[in-house]
């Protein structure tokens, strides 16, 4: 059974709007950061930290990212989508959804947790994890 994590933008978030290009940009920044760390360690850390290729897909007018594993026995795939919250039919807050589909490996689940925390920290959002717990990455007022 597939599982989802949600990163919701709230009043304290760094941005009020969100689109798929923002998410792609942050994931690319993640790869850059891990590449720089790998250079310092003299190790190909980026390959271990982000073992996926990013492919942009579209279904019924909805764009989403397919993170396809480079080593299928360890990492199969993850799906990342964005709900902008601007459609009249959907009156929700803008949020990112990370899906671990059926047939995914334990490695996919671990990487999905890692990416969801990174994206929540980057956008200063409210993270609803796969297990139902909530983490807050935005400045909270006393």
Explain what the structure shows.
The protein has a 7-stranded antiparallel beta sheet, covered by helices on one side. The protein has helices at 20-41, 45-49, 106-123, and strands at 3-8, 52-59, 62-69, 77-83, 95-100, 126-128, 134-136. It has one domain: Rbstp2229 like protein (TATA-Binding Protein), CATH 3.30.310. It is globular and about 40 Å long. Helix content is 32%, strand content 29%. It is an alpha+beta fold and 142 residues long. It is built from 3 helices and 7 strands; from the N terminus they run βααββββαββ.
Strand order of the largest sheet: 2-3-4-5-1-6-7
Report low-confidence residues grouped into runs of 5 or more: none
Q: Please provide the count of β strands.
A: 7
What is the tally of helical segments? 3
Characterize the main sheet.
Answer: 7 strands, antiparallel
Radius of gyration: 15 Å
Q: Which fold name is given in CATH as the topology?
A: TATA-Binding Protein
Spell out the helices and strands N to C: EHHEEEEHEE
- Provide the domain count: 1
| Shape call | globular
User: What would CATH call the homologous superfamily?
Assistant: Rbstp2229 like protein
Overall average pLDDT: 89
Tell me the helix content.
25-40%
Structural class by helix and strand composition: alpha+beta
CATH class: Alpha Beta
The span between the termini is 39 Å
